[in-house]
Write a structure and sequence with these properties.
Length: about 325
Amino acid sequence: MAGVSQTNVRSLDERKKRIERNPGMDYNPDLFGRLRINRSAVERRAATIGVRRSIKKDHQAAWLLRAISCIDLTTLAGDDTPGRVRRLCLKAKRPVRRDILRALGVEDLGITTAAVCVYHNLIETAVKELEGSGITVAAVSTGFPAGQISRSLKVAQVRESVSAGASEIDIVISRAKVLTADWQGLYEEVAAYREACGEAQLKTILATGELATLANVAKASWVCMMAGADFIKTSTGKESVNATLPVSLVMVRAIRDYGDLTGHMIGYKPAGGISRAKDALNCLVLMKEELGVQWIRPALFRFGASSLLGDIERQLEHHVTGSYSAQYRHPTA
């Protein structure tokens, strides 16, 4: 089956391309202080995603392959072991069975996930397993998931994770600073993490399900970008409400407005609750419509996911064979 257009699938070389980092800017509450969000309008717009556009057949397969290249394959469980992380890294290097790739005509593209995301104590295991693959190692930090430790400990965690070999750091913000409108405190906190990251990329997790309002989501997005965040991310995956399309719409529009003002492109990472290929397609459609196709690449877009990859691989097999296989045939690790 050679119908999948290779121009719509990112090769390994394309995936490695980087963009100019966001240097941040001075704290300026005038840029976000008066933001108001019309929840009804946001929800109406979000409800059109995946309805007005229907991606079918070869086009759908191509978009799903691109989605794979944007996954941060994640394991953040209390019973994580080195063996589990090694298996996850093997899956990251070969995310789709070779017979499926061969049938799609894309076996030579070197498709992998973008990164593997783990807790600090498993960074070295992941780095060793992924050596030479081009796949980066991301680590959660700053008291993930609740963030209820001192700033000095949070900064120390960031520095230790970078020293251990993580090239991307996913930090959690202090939700209390958002809920009490301590925007300058949030700015100073994130700026300290940015400095501690050095050359490692900083992904700021807003935990949007705990921020109470969409206006708070928008303001927190602005503050994190002003403080130098390379990515803004929805959730830890541990909250009761995680990545939703209304929240995604608010965050990507903040990214668009920040880019219009500064010229810097900020990445977006929806995480938590994205487990179906259909959810991934809806996110990709939103990104294309709101920010443009140039944002749909690992340098600017990631899925934080563990089970999503299995469902995408299952959908690709259906595209090839016309039949759905059992989920257990597509293990993540």
